[in-house]
Amino acid sequence: MRMLRLPEFRLHVPTRLDEALKILAEEGAAEGRARPVAGGTDLWPNMKRRHQMAETVVSLMRVPGLAGVSANGETRLGATTTLTAVAEDAEVRRRYPALARAVTSISSPPLRNMGTLGGNVCVDTRCTYYNQTEEWRQSIDYCMKEAGTVCWVAPSSPRCWAHSASDSAPMLAALDARVRLASVEGERVVAMADLYRDDGIDYLAKRPDELVVEILLPAGSTAEACRSSFFKLRRRGSIDFAVLSAAAAVWTDDANVVTDARVWLGAVSSQPSEAAKTAAALIGKELTEDSIREAAGVARRAATPMDNTDFQAQWRGAVVGKYVEAALRDCAGLDPGIQPPKHPLSPTPAR
Length: 351
Fold this sequence. Notes:
Among the domains are: about 10-60, Uridine Diphospho-n-acetylenolpyruvylglucosamine Reductase, domain 2 (2-Layer Sandwich); about 225-330, 2-Layer Sandwich (Enolase-like, domain 1), CATH 3.30.390.50. Helix content is about 25%, strand content about 20%. It has twelve helices and twelve strands.
């Protein structure tokens, strides 16, 4: 088997955020000539397979202030904090146990030791016809996401249907997280839900010359304020990307009546998908088996699974309600009926 090698590129390792932003702007990030990298667990394989190219790569791992977790009211998660550090942080596990579960479900321990939260939030969309070797893609002709003009998943469609691959994003969106972005033009904060577009190619609403600096989690979404849960479907529980994930956060009053709810799905479209009608069906009702079953029954409407990943699309669509129901039952303290995602070598997040 031929070894896949990285193409030639210039590597910059800045030690200040403003320096990193300046290099990205001057080296052509807006035109795709320059790319940032943190852990590299997504970019390096993509460059080896020639999915993504860059003349310049800017490493963020020596920029101070981009890594770490701080909790003082809202919780701040630095973009270059490794996934392992996020999943094992005591405050994250206490305040946002479902986020710790979601992050623990990402890939394998060695890759979580390298991969970062910011990288997972921005991870490239995936598709059976795209995530192959260069030779394989050439043999069938390139798809729309690369150099072709046709989406091989839906040949008559004018758009690319590659699906969202981030496991942290649906849970962060359900917890009402925000993202701080920075560029040479300044900083802005956007809701996690607004960071994505429903487009397999242009899937991020941030500019290429902007960096995710940190993720902000509100105090109103901690375990003291709401109940949350995350479930993920994949063929192998040890490493695979999700083919479906369900993230839920539920707020109740003293009588167990739902005052607010958010349900998000991952890996069923080109962006994390909000199951707004499911959440709306719960509000004003007591969180019971019956109300959960009724609400989960409408979750399928928020999903558009395509035949571009593992398992049949029809079956993945059919089990959307089951995974949403499991997440909501878990929020209610009921038996979810399926096992939560967990790597056998990973610690169990606190409940």
